[in-house]
Structure prediction request, 104 residues.
Amino acid sequence: MSLKAKRVTNARLRAYEGKRDLAAELLESVRQMKAGKTQVVLSPAIGARERTGLSQSQFARLLGVSVRTLQGWEQGRKQPSGAARTLLTIAQTNPKALLAVAGK
Prediction:
């Protein structure tokens, strides 16, 4: 299949959305939650940031990345690179060490 065939046009998206039953999808999601079939998975970036007690903008500045990049990590849309992953591990295991380096 070519890339052109995989593209979602506005017309295809409207057609797809028009067929959805959002109420039924929401009800099914609630049923799954009540049955314990769902779980919340926190991103390592969220845990690391929370351990430092910093806001997203402060933590992003400390790591030398944009807030948007940090949000991507926290939402699971992106994965941090090797160096950033190491800093997140340090923040998770020893947040005082990372804060000390930053002079906080």
About this structure: The CA atoms of residues 73 and 79 lie 6 Å apart. Helices lie at 3-6, 10-19, 22-34, 44-52, 56-63, 67-74, 82-93, 95-102.
